[in-house]
Amino acid sequence: MTTVAKAMPVDPSLIARLHDIIEPPAIGMWPWAPGWWLVALLVSLLLMRLMQYAIRYWRRNAYRREAEHALCRAASADFSHPSEQVSECLSVMRRCMLAIHRRKDVAALHGKNWSNALKACLPNAGDFEIDARVLRLLHEGAYLPPHQITAGDAAALLAFTQHWIKAHRR
Known about the structure:
Blueprint: H1 12-16, H2 34-60, H3 62-76, H4 82-100, H5 103-106, H6 111-120, H7 132-140, H8 151-167
């Protein structure tokens, strides 16, 4: 038994009375769902931790920045003799070593022990060779008479000191 539905005639007045579907208001962004609060909290904690690491890194390397400034002043200063520049370079390296190691381990170092300690702080210390002029100044530069120190010696020590300050490890 099959029935065929007959189409009803459409009354134009009925179509005129039809209205569109009323949409609900859009869901607002505020207040946040609990998951978004958790994401915001985790991002805040991550940013605070990154700031903490950045500040710690900045403070730990303050001695290095100070040494670089002192070397810039020593390089541009008009010393009456190269021995003064050598003395300044040796002083800067000594201050750096005192900043990164205990005073009792560094203060008494001199001669070959001093140059070995400086070399040990460099990465790839076994592959690095110190120039003979620089080595002589590291061993006995503080005690040499001024007439035995040349401008070339002072320039070589200045270059080594700049390299050491930038490259050494804590």
